[in-house]
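Q&A log
Question type: sequence-to-structure
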Amino acid sequence: MQHYDYPFEVEWSKEEIVKVISLWNAVERAYESGISKEDFMQAYREFKTVLPSVGQEKKYGNQFEKESGYSLYKVLQEIKKSEKNKIFLGER
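Response status: OK
Response body:
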């Protein structure tokens, strides 16, 4: 297990922070053990209620990737192209 910081703003409400961190957890699962598309997209929809703009999504997604090595963008691309119900981007 890696140790790194999750990107979020301290000014956000507890509920907003939980939504954003839930997405980072979903991205981690996509790389570490796999996650269903439905579960990932639920976390993503909640995340977008906090950060609705593409620019904000990119900013925080890039911060998370820099910290963790896990890419929100790559997970979203895999969801779009994969016909499977579960996605896994890690190595087996």
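Response note: The first strand starts at residue 35 and ends at 36.
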